[in-house]
Amino acid sequence: MARPKRFHKMIRIGPVEVGTYRDDRGREKHTAACTAPRCGFSTDYADRSAAELAARTHHCAP
């Protein structure tokens, strides 16, 4: 059974939250996820700057 992801270094950029976690192999990963209803945007990145850039440029579908 997979462990739940434990996020730290959370920031919010508009409706998108960016958080950092460690994967199963101990590598640091970064996630950007939109919290708007019915959006569904969520991606993982290898570095924090890419996740923050995705958060800044994300636009929810109307």
Quick take:
This is Mobile element transfer protein. With 62 residues, the chain is α+β, with helices and mostly antiparallel strands. The chain has one domain.
Number of separate structural domains: 1
Number of distinct beta strands: 4
Note poorly predicted spans: none
Helix content: 10-25%
Estimate the strand proportion: 35-45%
> What would you call the structural class?
alpha+beta
**What is the molecular shape?**
globular
Order of helices and strands: EEEEH
- Terminal Cα separation, in Å? 37 Å
**Main sheet: strand order:** 1-2-3-4
Reported for the largest beta sheet, the result is: 4 strands, antiparallel
Total DSSP helices: 1
Determine the mean pLDDT: 90
Radius of gyration: 12 Å
Descriptive key words:
4-stranded antiparallel sheet, alpha+beta, SpdB, 4 strands, Mobile element transfer protein, 16% helix, 62 residues, 1 helix
Structural summary, described in words:
This protein is of the alpha+beta class. It has one domain (8-57). It is 16% helix and 39% strand. It has one helix spanning 48-57; strands at residues 8-13, 16-22, 28-34, 42-45. Strands 1-2-3-4 form a 4-stranded antiparallel beta sheet, covered by helices on one side. Strand 1 (8-13) and strand 2 form a beta hairpin. The chain is globular, with a radius of gyration of 12 Å. The model has no long low-confidence stretch (mean pLDDT 90).
